[in-house]
Amino acid sequence: MPIENIKNTVNINADIKEFLTTETNETFPVSQFYCTARFLLARKLKESI
Of 13, 17, 26, 38, which cross-links 22 as Cys (Cβ 3.0–4.6 Å)? Predict the structure, then answer.
């Protein structure tokens, strides 16, 4: 199917364990802002179906 014919798209992202891992294996957690935004987006997508 050509891209021009696609009307709706959904991007699904698997759960992220860490936000960032450096080359020295230092990790940074996913921020609460990201978790909240992801939850709200999932809810909006579910409502629109």
Answer: 26
Structure tokens at 30: 């996913």
Residue 36 included in any domain: yes
Cβ pair 32, 20 in contact under 8 A: no
Alpha carbon 18 to its chain centroid, in Å, reads 13
Domain range for 34: 18-49
CA distance 1 to 18: 35
Question: Where in 1-49 does DSSP place strands (E)?
Answer: 20-21, 27-28
Domain count, the chain: 1
Measured distance CA(9)–CA(48) in Å, rounded: 12
